[in-house]
Amino acid sequence: MNESRAYRITIADSDEDFLCKDGQNVLRAMERLGRKGIPVGCRGGGCGICRVQVLDNGRYRTLKMSRAQISIQDEASGMCLACKLIPQGDLRIQPLGLLRKKLNN
Q1: Which residue from 6, 58, 56, 54 is spatially nearest to 28, judged by alpha carbons?
Q2: CATH number at residue 50
Q3: What 3-state class would DSSP assign to 34?
Q4: Buried b (16+ CB within 10 A) or exposed e, 73-94
Q5: What pTM did the predictor assign?
């Protein structure tokens, strides 16, 4: 992990952004915002609470996610779990489901 490199993650609709260190997952970086109410489930890619859509074809990789939460088709369209989303460049994401509801409050 290159500690000096960080990527800007922008939350669509709010234009709020935060930095995610190289090699860090987006959920961990999002938690560091210090905002109350960010829902966190298993952190292991199984519960689906941190579901997001990556917009604008940003560069990223994902770690293993439950197919019960993210299908192959979902993943191909940019949908993933923030706990398993590792940016490799700046990203714009759209929170989905419970995460979207909590961030919009």
Answers
A1: 6
A2: 3.10.20.30
A3: coil
A4: ebeeebbbbbbbbbbeebbbbb
A5: 0.86
For β-strands 6-11 and 51-55, DSSP reports them as unpaired
Looking at beta carbons, which pairs linking 69-77 to residues 24 or more positions away fall under 8 Å?
Answer: 69/45, 77/53
Q: How far apart are CA 11 and CA 14, in angstroms?
A: 6
Strands (DSSP E) along 1-98, which ranges? 6-11, 16-21, 51-55, 60-62, 79-81, 85-87, 91-95
Q: Is residue 99 part of a domain?
A: yes
Domain tally for the chain?
Answer: 1
Q: Is 27 helix (H, G, I), strand (E, B) or coil?
A: helix
* Cα 101 from Cα 105, distance rounded (Å): 7
Is position 97 within any domain? yes
Q: What is the pLDDT of residues 49-75, one digit of tens each?
A: 899 999 987 899 999 999 999 999 999
